[in-house]
């Protein structure tokens, strides 16, 4: 016959039975009920300010991509230039300064023309995806 102490000892080859409360014991119950029902409350929402209203339009963030050619040079393949108006380049003079550094023109970049010879006098006149001619002189020479 088995003594009362012998029933709790494991028998070789048989796994020991795990008690109901878990192998390592149990945790005390949470004060809110079951452990899975404890959910953090949502943080309070902040009022939205309209201070950033100028940033709502995607055109503010969108860069313009234009191609510039040298005046009278039909062999020049063109310079693709990307900029964000108002951020990278604030005026037409600033754009002409950057183009002077990149293009080898005799007196620097001073004038911008459309492909049909119309002179551009402000940065807003440049259209995304179009091509323009950069010149050191006021006269426009047809490329082709």
TrEMBL record:
In terms of domain of life, where is this protein from? Eukaryota
A GO biological process this protein is involved in? intracellular signal transduction
InterPro entries (alphabetical): Doublecortin_dom, Doublecortin_dom_sf
Doublecortin domain residues: 64-144
Query: Region (Disordered): which ranges?
Result: 1-53
Report a single Gene Ontology molecular function.
microtubule binding
Keywords assigned: Cytoplasm, Cytoskeleton, Repeat
Q: What is its main location?
A: cytoplasm
Q: Where in the cell is it found?
A: Cytoplasm, Cytoskeleton
Entry keyword Repeat = yes
Q: Name one Pfam family in it.
A: DCX
Q: Which GO terms describe its cellular component?
A: cytoskeleton
Q: Does the keyword Repeat apply?
A: yes
Q: Which protein are we looking at? A: Doublecortin domain-containing protein
């Amino acid at each position: 016959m088995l003594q009362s102490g012998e029933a709790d000892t494991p028998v070789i080859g048989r796994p020991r039975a795990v008690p109901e409360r878990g192998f390592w014991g149990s945790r005390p119950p949470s004060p809110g009920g079951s452990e899975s029902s404890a959910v953090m409350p949502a943080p309070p929402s902040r009022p939205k300010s309209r201070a950033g209203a100028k940033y709502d339009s995607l055109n503010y963030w969108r860069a313009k991509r234009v191609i510039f050619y040298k005046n009278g040079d039909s062999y020049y393949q063109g310079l693709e230039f990307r900029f964000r108006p108002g951020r990278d380049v604030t005026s037409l003079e600033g754009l002409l300064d950057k183009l002077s550094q990149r293009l080898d023109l005799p007196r620097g970049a001073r004038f911008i023309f459309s492909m049909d010879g119309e002179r551009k006098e402000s940065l807003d006149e440049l259209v995304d995806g179009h091509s323009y001619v950069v010149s050191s002189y006021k006269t426009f020479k047809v490329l082709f």
